[in-house]
Amino acid sequence: MKVLFLDGTIIGNKTGAVLEMVRSYIEETGCGYELEILKLADYTHQFVDGRPASDYNDDMKKLVHKFNEADGYIVATPVFQGSIPGVLKNVFDMLHPHTMRYKPVSIVANGGTYQHHLVIENQLKPILDYFRCLVTPNYVYTHRSHFDRDNNIIDNDVHDRLRELARVFVKYAEMSKRLSKDALDDD
Ligand SMILES: Cc1cc2nc3c(=O)[nH]c(=O)nc-3n(C[C@H](O)[C@H](O)[C@H](O)COP(=O)(O)O)c2cc1C
């Protein structure tokens, strides 16, 4: 089982810090999965504009490949303008609708205000539902007050929620192994 840890932003550090923490907690479960961090900041992005897939640059093709070969995903995103960053939506736009079908996904998000935790429910989950992902009921929203100056998470409740997210993600991943990715309908 390969799990892709997606750092869905090209600016900022807290999203990546939360992602690293989730990786540690998933490792701690002893699941033995292959865990890989993918930072969108390391890629040269092109707008998805309907051109043939072969006409995109190597980085865009590599992103698609990484998503295709993964069996599950941890998606980490900052909140931008009450939604997800455009660069992250652009990557989702690049994927075939079946890419993430029936694969487990957990979400972590970071925002500058407490008021925007429901951005996960209203903006990101509908996209993952469209992809028919197995989205865990747990997600974790962090705010700058949960970090110290070096972006270490200093809030114990956040650590507990991340540990619980890791535990449930592994259960969903095991369930996904037994769920055929072929669908009877053709959508
Ligand atoms: C363009 C932009 C828009 C933002 N919009 C929001 C927003 O609507 N709601 C919010 O809570 N935080 C918003 N933020 C704050 C980011 O979510 C925050 O900077 C991010 O989670 C990462 O923190 P870091 O830059 O310290 O790593 C915005 C930041 C930027 C750069």
Automatic annotation (TrEMBL):
Keyword Flavoprotein belongs to the record: yes
Organism of derivation: Filibacter tadaridae
Classification of source organism: Bacteria, Bacillati, Bacillota, Bacilli, Bacillales
Keywords linked to the UniProt accession: Flavoprotein, FMN, Oxidoreductase
Residues of the NADPH-dependent FMN reductase-like domain: 1-144
EC number(s) recorded for this UniProt protein: 1.5.1.45
Segment forming the signal sequence: none
Enzyme class: oxidoreductase
Protein name: NAD(P)H-dependent FAD/FMN reductase
MF terms (GO), sorted A to Z: oxidoreductase activity
Source superkingdom: Bacteria
